[in-house]
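Standup notes
- DV: blocked on the single-chain target, sequence here:
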Amino acid sequence: MRTIDSPAFVVGYRPHKDDEGPLELACQLARAYGSPVEALTVVPQGWPTAVAGDTDREFRRWAVEEGQACAVEALERLAAHPDVEATASWVSARSVPQALLDRVDALDAGLVVVGSGEEVATGQVAVTSKTDRLLHSSPVPVAIAPRGYRAGEAATVTRATVAFRGDDTTWNLLDRVAGIVRETQSSIRVVTFAIRRGGMYTSGVPRAEDPVLRSWVARAEEEQARARDHLTEQGFTDDEVECLTVVAGSWGGAMDRLDWGRGDLLVLGSSSSHRLAQVFLGSSAAKILRHSPVPVIVVPGLTAV
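- DV (later): unblocked, structure below
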């Protein structure tokens, strides 16, 4: 699997949208990694015919004109980030996720960046059906910008928050996030979530005063102490590592208990295996994602260490 520090980042650019969040996030990440950005627009592809009729020819002419215009538009918007090396291209295809992945493969890119759906308010993250398919098939991390995201001029990455539950999979994720953080010279925050109603990140607990919850929190803090020691062994200083256990009555409440800054990222793990792909949106990771007020990077294909 390629690492996030590969040569280029691919960002899906949707034409005729007011949301520049994906471009903003792509430039923010590219600035942190010193990577170039390519904005890719996918226009619809007509059905192949043995002999193209007038309608087919008109459609193909429109596709070319639309693709070229979108590439010009993307470059104009990317010009607002003169310190980031950027290009734009377009392709005609039937599947947007597959077109993005084909471009990732062609560039040997290390990251693909997309936006959120239009059904949520500004500042919220929403996974579209296209992004959902991308998450389940991408060999590289996928970054999702909140709707209407604005990174700010010359913004970079200052902190990565990792959702951690102390099992083998999230230990694997922690190592991946440590690499991301080290490459961007930012800090890392390790958070374990306990949700009183509807179950915790690892198991259900009915009430805050329940002794089971107190026991679970104590065990979570032990795992976090191990995580801190592990990160220290990798060269992180005390100032660069923060470990928290957040207890709340809902996922939204849990996210609200954390402070979030302009340079923050949330990093979650997912599995690209067929068995788990069908349950991704019902998982705890997806619930955390939907309540994130900051960009989210989903690391695919994690396995137990």
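- Follow-up: The chain has nine helices and ten strands.
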